[in-house]
Amino acid sequence: MNLFCYTATATVQAALGGASDSVSVDMSNTYLEWAKDNFALNKLDTRLHRVVRDDCFRWLETANAEFDLIFMDPPTFSNSKKMRDTLDVQRDHPRLVELAMARLAPGGTLVFSNNQRRFKLDEALSEHYVVEDITGRSFDPDFQRRTNLHHVFLLRHKAP
């Protein structure tokens, strides 16, 4: 599953890497059209790799499927009229993570990234999930000097 999928580039890579099916969610018709173009250019079956136009909060609240891998890269801020409320990644990430983790299959991984320079992951998430900060490993060598450009975390369910 790819949330805030933009043009679904991450989904295309997952599908080309062997993902049997996927769901990519975004609110923008334009981005979703580009996502469909990306699927077509890469000869991906859109019956297996679906795009969904929806607010990611609303979609997560109503979804009933489980996913082995979830990629979520929300914008730093959004006040889209298509959303019920504004989105502030610092304020809203705990709720987004909780909703995504409810859709994550046992043994699965949530990749959570964002571009807010001063972002701090809510420490309470570490009480419920295994959290690994992989930000340092995600930078191209050309950008090693500016390590606050984005943040990337892997989250997994704790063993029972």
UniProtKB/TrEMBL annotation:
Taxonomy, superkingdom: Bacteria
Gene3D superfamilies: Vaccinia Virus protein VP39
Keywords: Methyltransferase, rRNA processing, S-adenosyl-L-methionine, Transferase
Pfam families listed in its UniProt record: Methyltrans_SAM
Domain S-adenosylmethionine-dependent methyltransferase: start-end pairs: 1-122
SUPFAM superfamilies per the UniProt record, alphabetical: S-adenosyl-L-methionine-dependent methyltransferases
InterPro entries xref list: SAM-dep_methyl-trfase, SAM-dependent_MTases_sf
Keyword rRNA processing: yes
Protein name (database record): S-adenosylmethionine-dependent methyltransferase domain-containing protein
Organism lineage: Bacteria, Pseudomonadati, Pseudomonadota, Gammaproteobacteria, Oceanospirillales
